[in-house]
Design goal:
8-stranded mixed β-sheet, homodimer, alpha/beta, 6-stranded mixed β-sheet, Peroxisomal Thiolase, Chain A, domain 1, 16 strands
């Protein structure tokens, strides 16, 4: 068996799995933003027909999963694996979405990096010969996240300029062993970094050093440079975190250049009053499964590095005065297989 | 590339990874129980030298990880992957334990099935050629779990006869591509099952149907029968759930027999007043990494099926009247490689 390890954190997939289909479902605010044309479904009802926001999140994710299966022409019982997770305590957004699904299920927690973590493991499962098909999916919901992580919505708390807005959105992607691409070619798995930031309203600053570390390892492990990618899309550092990331690379004499952007900066426009940008598992997931993938298949972006970031604190750890550990997982996608 | 899939839910590892080392650390109550001689470290201080129970859990898990690395003769920076998760909101038990570790990190959430899920993915990562070594670990702590899932400890609430006691314990296991065994030979990944049980004080009943479904699939996929195993160890159904599991198989005319037991039944004795038995991620993890593994290496149990179960609810979902989805992941361990 060939060792697929390239350097310390990266593996090169021997037979890169193909994206069979992807789907994304978002809420009204996201549908009012600049990426509206790339979403599969925009739901004006923040309850998604349910009676609680937690159920709404599960319903949104289930709908997204169903759309993805339909697009791939795969029924759930044919799927070999489902990798899923979300921000809710005990990941109930995903487990309740999957409670009736006849698919072997892997529960994942990577905070806002969950889509990249699920996609990495799904790609490895297919490439490793363990599955012919695997789905990666995740979600977040502004209302379920606010009340769990911050304050009751009714309180109407003021938001700091560095705060990000949790995206109401879900993304799902199905990989298969064979197909016309795009392909997942490399997986760079993050180590946890704690920069000592303890302000939970400044997650961009907390996560930027993790993104820097993972991207730096990816370039070192693969021998690639930023300009080898048509786009390097972090998610979701937001405006503040993305500026820090850019500065960290500039100190090394590396210009990430105009190809570098962030899902949290792409999903809303300035007029939407979201301060530093979008966040939440659903942010990078819905941007990947809509905008990024379609820019690839449309010919604009032949090769993309998708690097989702996660802040690994909890409200309890923040109340106990802990700083915020963070992680970033990167996945290289390519319209060509090798 | 060989397809390693056996039937719907099981994969057979092509080059079964070897257990390089395992370690387990528990609290005083667990150290007073019948498995005391198998634990590596029993800590009488429920705070593990820290100032909060959440920090205590992370300190316990970190200590367990360090012990495991020492036993394996591997320094953390040589480990290719770390798979970890726990019961605390946003899995902070694990992420804070790993916040200073230079190891590519995969965050997992499988509730009390987390050890089997981590071990499955670690084995697949090694067998798939993505890693030469990988660690699977998890923890739970009675005090951090009680206040998060149930009531403040000071309240002194009465416990129902079906309730289980969250184990204060951690387990870590390192797999390597080569070694003298025992080996991980098969992985059977669970589907989520919801039996309609909504009583969070009866998790054994909620999880037993998931254990039944996964074990049944394992036998069907592999062609093995219960008597092909020296021990089938679920964890942690407890006494109530294990009786239901036994009954479900008896309805099919299958007698799981005397080889069938449960980590939640093994870890405490009746005099310890734990009602239906132990639970928590640390229950099956500490029993696997101590008792089970040493029974294997000692020659008592040449082949074991380790089937950890998880209840996938949250306090919020229970308060909203939801029933409890559950999952069970099974891993076959063998002193022989093939």
């Amino acid at each position: 068996m060939a060792n697929k390890r390239l350097g310390r954190q990266t593996v090169r997939l021997e037979t890169p799995p193909s994206v069979a289909a992807a789907a994304c479902v978002v809420g009204k605010k996201e549908g009012d933003g600049p990426l509206r044309k790339w979403f599969d479904h925009i739901c004006d009802d923040s309850y998604f027909g349910q009676k609680s926001w937690e159920r709404a999140e599960s319903a949104m994710l289930f709908h997204c999963f169903s759309l993805c299966c339909d697009k791939a022409g795969i029924v759930p019982s044919e799927l070999d694996y489902l990798f899923a997770g979300d921000l809710l305590n005990q990941c109930v957004g995903s487990t309740f979405a999957a409670r009736d699904l006849p698919v072997p299920y892997w529960g994942i927690y990577g905070a806002c990096s969950t889509m990249a973590e699920c996609l990495s493991l799904a790609a490895m499962a297919v490439d490793g010969g363990f599955a012919d098909s695997a789905c990666a999916m995740t979600s977040s919901h502004f209302c379920s996240a606010e009340r769990q992580f911050r304050l009751p919505l009714e309180y109407g708390g003021q938001r700091t300029p560095t705060a990000q807005w949790t995206v109401t959105g879900a993304g799902a992607m199905i990989l298969t062993a064979e197909g016309p691409g795009p392909y997942v070619t490399h997986v760079t798995t993050g180590e946890i970094r704690d920069a000592g930031i303890s302000d939970a309203n400044n997650m961009g600053a907390a996560m930027a050093p993790a993104a820097y570390a993972t991207l730096k390892s990816h370039f070192a492990d693969t021998g690639r440079r930023p300009e080898d990618y048509a786009a390097i899309v972090t998610g979701d550092l937001g405006k503040v975190g993305h500026e820090i990331l850019t500065d960290l690379f500039l100190r090394d004499g590396v210009d990430l250049g105009p190809c570098s952007t962030d899902c949290g900066m792409l999903i809303y426009d300035a007029a939407q009053d979201v301060h530093a940008g979008g966040s939440g598992c659903g942010c990078s997931a819905s941007v990947l499964c809509g905008h990024i993938l379609q820019r690839m298949t449309g010919g604009d972006w032949p090769r993309v590095l998708f690097a989702a970031t996660g802040a690994l604190m909890s409200p309890t750890s923040s109340q106990q005065g802990e700083s915020i550990p963070a992680i970033c997982h990167a996945v290289a996608l390519d319209v060509k297989r090798g």
